[in-house]
Amino acid sequence: MTTQEAGTVTIYERIGGAEPIGRLVEAFYRNMDTLPEARELRAIHAPDLTETKRVLKLYLAQWMGGPGDYSAERGHPRLRARHMGFKVGTAERDAWLLCMKRALDETVPQADARHAILAALAPLADWMRNQPEGQD
User: Fold this and answer.
1) In CA terms, which of 14, 46, 62, 82 is 20 to 30 Å from 121?
2) Low-confidence residues of the chain, pLDDT below 70?
3) Rounded Cα gap, residues 113 and 36, in angstroms
4) CA max distance for the chain
5) Is Iron tagged as a keyword (predicted)?
């Protein structure tokens, strides 16, 4: 989602930049804290989400075509490798996507942008699974 052709508006620009991404991440983790379907997903995160939120904001900004601060600070995302220490199965994927969908619904007013973001995140979330089907 980070590719930008000359003259093309990125999703980052379309939704309004860093501030809306900050609201999106806050809503995402609020959903993770409150939705019963996300209880197990929340349990694999640290009690204090301050750093996790900061990193996700950087990542999503870059992923949506904004500043490259994530890579400048942390290098290549290597998302799957960074999550290998955690059990990520179908239930965790589905909970993550549910939290993100609800956060997008809450914070991104443009329906086409919400759809584009979720459509691009769904295969990424599926790729993060590290548990065989039926063993998650």
Assistant:
1) 46
2) 1-7, 78-85, 134-136
3) 27
4) 46
5) yes
Mind giving me the DSSP string for the chain? Answer: -----TTPPPHHHHHTSHHHHHHHHHHHHHHHHH-GGGHHHHHTS-S--HHHHHHHHHHHHHHTTS--HHHHHH-S--HHHHTTTS---HHHHHHHHHHHHHHHHHH---HHHHHHHHHHHHHHHHHT--S-TT--
Query: Distance between CA atoms of 80 and 1, rounded to whole angstroms?
Result: 17
pLDDT score at 46: 93
User: In the CATH scheme, what architecture does the domain 13-127 have?
Assistant: Orthogonal Bundle (1.10)
Q: What six digits make up the tokens of 104? A: 């997008």
**Quick one: pLDDT at residue 2?**
47
- CA–CA dist 8, 3 (Å, integer): 10
Total residues found in the chain within this entry: 136
Residue type, 107: T
